[in-house]
Amino acid sequence: MSLDLSDLRATPADLRKRYFDRGWWNDDTLGRNIVEWLSRSPASEMRIWSRARPQRIGFGGLAVLIRQFAAGIERRGIVPGDTVAVYVPNSIEGAVAFAGVMLAGATAVPVAPYYGLKELKYIVERSQARLLITTESDPAGRLEQIVAAWPDLPLLEDIYVVDDAVPGAMRRFDELIVDAPSELSPVDPERAAVIAFTSGTTTGPKGVVHLHRSICYDVRAHMVQMPDARRPTLTAGPIAHAAGMLAGLCLPAIRGKSIHLTDGWDPVRILAAMRDADLSTGGGTPFFLNSLLGHPDTRPEDIAKVEMVGFGAAAIPWSFAEKCEAAGIRNFRLYGSTEHPTVTMSSFDDPAIKRHRTDGRPLEGVEVRLVGSDGRDVDTGEPGELWSRGPDLCVGYTDPALNGEYFTSDGWFRTGDVAVKDEDGFYTITDRIKDIIIRNGLKIGAVEVEDALLAIPGMAECAVIAVPDDRTGERAHAVIRVADGASPPTLAGIRDHLKTIGLAKQKWPESLECVDDFPRTPLGKIKKFELRRRMTDMRGTE
Asked: I need a surface site. Which of 60, 113, 234, 292 has the fewest CB within 10 A?
């Protein structure tokens, strides 16, 4: 039984006409595009930097495997409209399954390899996946857990395992690699290509549905605008997430440059890979590059390999951007989401202050509004919720109840992010609506306070969250991580710093906590909702 996606939002007729007339939408399909990109550069390679399963394969061989996998799942009975879940770390098999499912006309459901059994069951159930592609975890035990949970997933017919050791109830991944015909079945570009579940920085994952048209446009028109470094880039983000899939898999393929992925972030191994294959790295959230800049094994010649990076997927402190520039790493910011992958971006033609302190301007085809609490557009310089629409916007969520909440009838997506537009048309994301702290009626943006705190020497990361307060309604609580060897600041010391730089006293954190690390999404974003929930739970036990 195929997943019922009949309640997805319809793109308004005037927008559809505009997207086709401008050539932003065409009949491309993502699986076929990936195979064509790979086939154009057969000598380039995909390389997986992994302690457990290092792999490498030429683009030509990878294209053949994708075609063979697509033929294999068709022979298995998978038809357009069916969903296939892919729950593996960055690997050749993961790329083959992801692209091969779409080449066969089915819908790929990538599952972050860091998710546990609870998230896996949630995603497989809500996507109604007929097949699951998976592998053993480290430490072992994942496959046994999945076997035990299988009876709770009656629509899941078969589980295919990448490893040599396969539990009796499961089957080998290699069974799906068969001889491919010269021509595969055509694929309807109006069908769902991917259901990407959000990483859950606020609540449970939401199933985001992208058609072939939206994903193909984003890769073709937006990702190619990313500056191109001389060296290949080692990507840590999993291809099970939009950022890793677009920047780590599709962008190198369309450029004909070798794909380098890692299945885990360990600075020592990353540095070794950079030296071995002359690679750059460090894009995405600041977490990745920051861990290299502060690592004792990092040499100046390592940093010299990182010519340029694009920062996104999390709030980017301008102080960190300027720190990178001072180290010789040119950088820019961009903004998007699983629902709308690339909304704004700055470029190296923009002044440094725009690249470091804004998230850029809307890209071709993208429209942006900033809307106040009264539903009206706000003036330049005033904060408002960012609404976006464009040819790369998703068609909605698997949960129909969410579509009316997040999308308007005329095609706008309510992002939940607060932004400000300057006189030159650059947008700056200042907060998530849920990250706004309301103290005695005053709205305090957490990002503003975090930027101020990160200027304190020795501060590595921080998150400022709202916690309930009987007197003020809410108050700001700062959770910090200091660099190795640095002494944690005191609350009094933090307040002295904020006073010196002139931050209004009402915005100062009223409590402080130092941690060794933060709960994170697979892309390194701090899970603020977990910090808030923990503080609420602690308050409830007082």
From this structure: 60
- The backbone torsions φ and ψ at residue 346, rounded to the nearest 5 degrees and listed phi first, read -100, 170
Quick one: DSSP state of residue 506? Answer: G
The CATH class that applies to domain 28-211 reads: alpha beta
Read off the amino acid at residue 263. D
Asked whether 508 and 540 are in contact (CB, 8 A), the reply is no
Closest among 214, 270, 260, 206 to 234, alpha carbons compared = 260
Q: What are phi and psi of 321, to 5 degrees?
A: -60, -40
Distance CA 521, CA 532 (A): 15
Domain 440-540 indexed as CATH 1.10.10.970 = no
509 with 476: CB under 8 angstroms?
Answer: yes
Per-residue pLDDT tens for 219-250? Answer: 988 877 787 878 999 998 888 888 888 888 99
Percent of the chain with pLDDT over 90: 61
Q: How many Cα atoms within 13 Å fall on the side-chain side of residue 219?
A: 29
Domain ranges of the chain: 28-211, 220-433, 440-540
Longest dimension (CA), the chain: 72
Cα 156–Cα 337–Cα 48 angle in degrees, nearest 5: 65
- Rounded CA gap, 266 and 274, in Å? 12
Q: At what angle do helices 59-76 and 92-103 cross, to 10 degrees?
A: 60
**DSSP label of 314:** S
Amino acid at 88: V
**CA 200/CA 527 separation, integer angstroms:** 8
508 vs 496: CA distance, rounded Å: 10
What pTM did the predictor assign? 0.83
